[in-house]
Write a sequence for this structure.
């Protein structure tokens, strides 16, 4: 009896490498290796339990932790898959990071700073988003330069051409209002490189 119990306890947890992944099912299925030359699998693969709201498709060779209900090697569930080959390092306590093997990183950092780094594209709204983002500070600087030039032009032209005072005032006010609105439209929270 004691030997059987000891065997069951020893068989509860296994660690090894992922061999295959099937991400087409409602619950991702994996085939994993555990003991030397042992392939652990259910009828179609082992259910890989992921945290709600997070899903990833691991590479072959990623590491897993698999539990066996009642120490029964025919009743496995994989509860964790990690891949040290691609995990970013250097974080600080409390940070959260989502990453890929290609170097794309979303980091929820300290001080309420969320950073996203990629050498590709960022698409907001959907995968088919195609409108380019505007670098607001640069655009605002260009608009302010243009509006200053327009104000200078209006002042100079009204000295040469007889322009009603009300028209000059209205045009100058419109330029000023647009300059203020343009400056106020630049986000102080979202920054682009």
């Amino acid at each position: 009896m004691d030997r059987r119990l000891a065997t069951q306890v020893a068989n509860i947890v296994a660690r090894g490498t992922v061999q295959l992944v099937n991400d087409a099912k409602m619950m991702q299925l994996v085939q994993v290796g555990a003991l030397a030359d042992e392939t652990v699998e259910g009828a179609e693969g082992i259910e890989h339990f992921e945290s709600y709201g997070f899903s990833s498709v691991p590479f072959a060779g990623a590491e897993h932790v698999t539990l066996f209900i009642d120490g029964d090697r025919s009743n496995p569930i994989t509860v964790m898959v990690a891949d040290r080959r691609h995990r970013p390092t250097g974080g600080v306590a409390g940070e959260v990071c989502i990453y890929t093997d290609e170097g794309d990183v979303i980091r929820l950092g300290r001080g309420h700073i969320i950073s996203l780094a990629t050498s590709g594209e960022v698409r907001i709204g959907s995968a088919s988003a195609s409108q380019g983002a505007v670098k607001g500070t640069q655009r605002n600087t260009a608009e302010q330069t243009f509006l200053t030039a327009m104000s200078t032009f209006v002042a100079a032209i009204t000295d040469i051409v007889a322009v009603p005072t009300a028209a000059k005032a209205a045009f100058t006010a419109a330029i000023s209002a647009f300059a203020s609105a343009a400056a106020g439209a630049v986000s102080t929270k979202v920054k682009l490189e």
The radius of gyration is 30 Å. The chain has three domains: 2-82, 87-132, 136-184.
